[in-house]
Design goal:
The complex is a heterodimer of chains A (about 425) and B (about 230). With about 425 residues, chain A is mainly alpha-helical. Chain A has 20 helices and six strands. Chain B has a six-stranded mixed β-sheet with strand order 6-7-8-3-9-10, sandwiched between helices. Chain B has a four-stranded antiparallel β-sheet with strand order 2-1-4-5, covered by helices on one side. In chain B, strand 1 and strand 2 form a beta hairpin. Classes of the chains: A mainly alpha (about 425), B alpha/beta (about 230).
């Protein structure tokens, strides 16, 4: 066997058969099971009124209705508990000084870190695979499975999991104690939430800008069914930065570590600047809930420089509607639209107004409805959008589950946890080990 | 063979090593001796490439050692503070080393009596056996220089005789040893070259005859020489 494979197998075994991993996996099983039972129950209950009402049925989509809440549980588990599973992989090596063993075998620091990354990636894949019985059962109940959307959701959580792994590796490399590293990595993760929460408070333009690039915010693309090149690259870059910094901190043969660390950060910011200018998005939802009809999208691509002045507070519910139904969809097509949210005296004077400006011409409206906005924009640009209301309508997938959900409970509350405890025992118990011998 | 020239190391304002120079010739067993806090472990970390010195150079066969890769090729190091994977069984650890290096000396397992504890978890080994396992790791390779930090910790007198015998036999095979030893009585039994370290600097060095000539008389023990030297 090649030495690197030996190392990767060791790391994989170390993570999968640790007590913390066992507890984490049991917790995952409970949370996924609970999320599934609750989500299917609610979806089924609400579907009762929709099965014979095609208009109401259109609002029923399995991803936001069932799979979103299930994976939402994973988000909490990844953010708050995963660091405790990952950090010992490095912290214990440091505490026991076993890096001194590995580094004297034919492994470089790069090999050691890569093997650990591969092992954690396999662990995360295993965690995500634990949700598959739920998906299969959903299908067996007669539920619809939007494959593209689910794959996107899984990729998003895999990337988010890798982000937590990279932050944990960085913290573990920075601190000598497991406790300090755990607290620091949870602090970094929660910091992302705090910045995200502060977005609507309009505290400072810089904070608003940063909040557009928090991990939780970028994860929303995957949760909402938008395949975004920028979002995927963002995760790849941010994970790489933390992994590289962990590598630099761990490598005791490196001198002047601050130099490579600062170069890495500068390169990351530059790469972020580049990718933020690329608009390559695809709405993967079957209902196309994130995008305008194709005719409108094509016409909007042709519109010259567009400026929008908004005389409204960010906390206003009309602004929230406008953002969801128009601005977010517009961002998917164009990222060069200048949106200005007015403040001060001007805001009070013209509160509630939207001003669209193209080629020096402008038009105002108090409406935030697409029916009103598009004629204004296309009128100012002198473009004909053609017919845009004749799109194929999404039928919706309401489902009333008549079977009892106890099988889900058996699988997630009993079978999976017991299976894990059994696997752990097989690996660790002396008696079974002797039998194996 | 391995030459240290003016090695200096500082931790903030504390001087850990102050212009330490000595040479370990091929086939020698050099004992780094000194009281606690003299800088023995730091010196061994630097000799093994695990820490960078702030000043000075290390030469192997008159060529300066520049990268950790170069150290790794020639040298095997057993740090004092090393707790081998506590949740592994002894045979699992040996298998891992074997699979990773594709070269272990099977005889060492027998010589170090590891066969009888192979099914034990490392965390449940006695200190002596844990130390044997550390020695197994340091010796189960073909490297020319073996650096051991406090290798005799945790051995009873009978076990110590076996371990000293093992080091001698490896030395006869042509391997060079650099040992940090706390107990001067143990150092006297195995080393043929001594580097006396006190307060971060080398007080004196040489073989036992040279030291006796410089600091005492023919019947002086290493301990007496050391006391004289630091005075």
């Amino acid at each position: 066997m090649r030495p690197f494979l030996v190392l990767t197998l060791k790391e994989t075994k170390d993570i999968f058969f640790s007590k913390t991993a066992l507890l984490f996996l049991v917790l995952v099983s409970f949370i996924v099971g609970y999320g599934f039972v609750t989500a299917v129950g609610l979806y089924s209950e609400q579907s009762l009124a929709a099965v014979n009402n095609p208009l109401y049925a259109r609002g029923f989509e399995p991803v936001p209705g069932v799979f979103g809440p299930i994976y939402g549980g994973l988000f909490i588990l990844f953010s708050l508990f995963l660091p405790f599973v990952i950090i010992p992989l490095i912290s214990l090596e440091k505490e026991h000084n076993t890096l001194a063993i590995l580094i004297q075998l034919p492994f470089s620091f790069k090999d050691i870190l890569t093997a650990k990354i591969i092992a954690t990636l396999l662990f995360l894949l295993f965690v995500l695979i634990l949700t598959f019985p739920g998906i299969i059962l959903w299908r067996m109940y007669g539920g619809h499975i939007p494959v593209n959307e689910i794959c996107l959701l899984l990729s998003g959580y895999l990337l988010y999991g890798m982000f937590v792994v990279s932050v944990s590796f960085f913290s573990a490399s920075l601190f000598n104690s497991v406790a300090n590293a755990s607290i620091f990595s949870i602090f970094l993760i929660i910091l992302s939430w705090v910045i995200d929460f502060s977005r609507n408070m309009n505290i400072s333009p810089l904070l608003s800008f940063i909040s557009e690039w928090t991990v939780t915010r970028v994860l929303k693309y995957f949760e909402n069914g938008i395949l975004s090149f920028t979002a995927a690259m963002y995760f790849v870059l941010i994970c790489s930065v933390f992994f590289i910094m962990a590598y630099i901190l761990l490598s005791f043969d490196l001198k002047d570590k601050w130099k490579p660390i600062s170069s890495t950060i500068i390169l990351f910011l530059f790469a972020m600047f580049l990718i933020s200018h690329i608009t390559l998005n695809a709405d993967m939802t079957e209902s196309h809930r994130n995008s305008f009809p194709p005719g409108i999208s094509k016409a909007l691509e042709k519109v010259p420089d567009l400026e929008i002045d908004i005389y409204m507070n960010k906390g206003d519910s009309r602004f929230a509607d406008y953002q969801k139904s128009f601005l977010k969809k517009l961002e998917l097509i164009r990222n060069d639209v200048r949106v200005k949210i007015m403040t001060g005296k001007e805001l009070k004077k013209k509160y509630g107004l939207f001003v669209y400006k193209i080629n020096g011409k402008s038009k105002e409206t108090y409406s935030n409805s697409e029916q009103e906005i598009f004629p204004i924009i296309f009128g100012l640009a002198g473009i004909s959008a053609g017919h845009w209301n004749n799109e194929t309508e999404f039928p919706g997938y309401p489902l009333v589950v008549k079977e009892r959900l106890s099988i889900i409970e058996y699988i997630y509350y009993l079978l999976i946890p017991l299976g894990m405890v059994f696997a752990f025992a097989v690996n660790n118990l002396k008696l079974l080990r002797r039998l194996k011998k | 063979m391995l030459k240290l020239s003016n090695i200096t190391k500082k931790y903030f304002k504390t001087m850990a090593l102050n212009k330490v120079s000595f040479e370990a010739s091929r086939g020698s067993i050099t004992g780094i001796i000194g009281p606690n806090g003299a800088g023995k472990s730091t010196l061994l970390d630097i000799i093994s490439g695990f820490q960078n010195p702030d000043g000075g150079e290390i030469y192997f066969n008159d060529q300066p050692l520049k990268s950790f890769k170069e150290y790794r090729k020639i040298l095997s190091y057993m740090p004092q503070h090393l707790e081998i994977y506590p949740d592994y069984h002894v045979d699992e650890f040996i298998e891992f080393i074997n699979a990773a290096t594709e070269h272990i000396d099977i005889n060492l397992i027998e010589i170090l009596n590891l066969e009888q504890v192979k099914n034990k978890k490392i965390r449940y080994l006695s200190k002596g056996y844990h130390q044997r396992l550390k020695l197994f790791f340091a010796l189960s390779n073909t490297k020319e220089i073996i650096v051991l930090d406090e290798p005799f910790d945790g051995f009873d007198p009978i076990q110590l005789i076996e371990i000293l015998e093992l080091i001698r036999s490896e030395n006869i095979k042509g391997r060079t040893f650099i040992l940090s030893i706390h107990q001067l009585y143990d150092a006297e039994k195995i080393c043929n070259h001594y580097v006396l370290l006190n307060e971060s600097r080398v007080v004196t060095q040489g073989n036992i005859q040279t030291l006796k000539q410089t600091f005492g008389e023919d019947n002086y023990s290493l301990e007496q020489i050391f006391k004289r030297a630091i005075q």
